[in-house]
Amino acid sequence: MILDAHGDYTIDGVSVRSLPKVSLHDHLDGALRPATVIELADEAGIDLPETDAASLADWFAERSDSGSLVEYLKTFDITTSVMQTAEGLRRVAREFVEDLAADGVVYGEVRWAPEQHLAGGLTLDEAVEAVQAGIEDGEDSIDADGGSIRVGQLITAMRHTDRSLEIAELAVRHRDGGAVGFDIAGPEDGFPPSRHRAAFDYLATQFFPVTVHAGEAAGLDSIRSALIDGRALRLGHGVRLASDLDVVSRSGDEVLVTFGDLSRWVRDREITLELSPSSNLQTGAIEAWGEELADHPFDLLYQLGFSVTVNVDNRLQSGTSLTKELALLARAFDYDLEDLQAFQLNAAAGAFLTVEEREELIELIAEGFDL
């Protein structure tokens, strides 16, 4: 693997950035450009810890690399503060789409919590409409440049508040206006999905897709609740599911593992794991296995047949891109292009699209990799 002067990575002579990618776990308030944060903060009269883009990017990276999800989440106080107007939300969403396209993403899902963007007087519906307008601006811009990208909204409720049913109803109201799924996010430990059972019950009656943050800062009970109470089709991170696997022996590339009931269910039902390698290191999600990327149970889960996908989580906080995450994994676990394609096919299969749309996406990925 070779890193070039433009920040791209080459594997077997192929640019990783040029490969078609699917992004399933990408937070809008974790993807702002530092320069945009500065400009929007200046317009709103908000003080920042740094006033030039490079220094602000370094500040976010330093504060995010704490080993604690709670501390990691505090950096979002700044990004959400500059996303309180329709104009700000529209701009951030447009730039989000443009940045995904520059990263080689052909289909993405952006998750964000409308309830955190009402301080400027917007209603929940107006906030969703502003983000959708920005998404469409970005899609049109990429189309005009000869590219193609599609992005859907994952409307998210904060798990430590009591608005999840209201947000679920909001998501369903906008299912024909860009909303493709529902999520809960925020501090995981102490706020299980079961607290939001009414919202999940409602979504089930509406046949509306659900992904749930689980198995990041909390363990197997959180994952179990996401599946039982949340009827989750995907697990946001889900990395701690690996603690339900008992590695009996290793011999070279051969690993003998005993599955727990939960991990076997997730594997056999092909429930998508939205893994985010760099973020998982920053938040301490893999502390049970080690402190380096090579310690991440990603490869174990992959080799055992779990539906693993690669995601950025928060581009700003982790200083990353999907291209970089794939390259880091390739270096850590000696993956080749066939492996990288497998991750994209898993993501396409887990996307909140119709069967026909997923099949088209799978064909697009196969053509782009052309292995």
UniProtKB/TrEMBL annotation:
The GO terms describing molecular function are:
adenosine deaminase activity; metal ion binding
Give the Pfam families listed for this entry. A_deaminase
InterPro entries from the entry? A_deaminase_dom, Ado/ade_deaminase, Metal_Hydrolase
What biological processes does GO assign it?
Answer: adenosine catabolic process; hypoxanthine salvage; inosine biosynthetic process
Keywords attached to this entry: Hydrolase, Metal-binding, Zinc
Q: What is its EC number?
A: 3.5.4.4
Q: Which residues form a coiled coil?
A: none
Q: Which cofactor does it need?
A: Zn(2+)
Adenosine deaminase domain segment(s): 20-367
> This protein's superkingdom?
Bacteria
Quote a single Gene Ontology cellular component term. Answer: cytosol
State the family named in the UniProt similarity comment for this chain. Answer: Belongs to the metallo-dependent hydrolases superfamily. Adenosine and AMP deaminases family.
- Descriptive protein name: adenosine deaminase
Q: What is the lineage of its organism?
A: Bacteria, Bacillati, Actinomycetota, Actinomycetes, Micrococcales
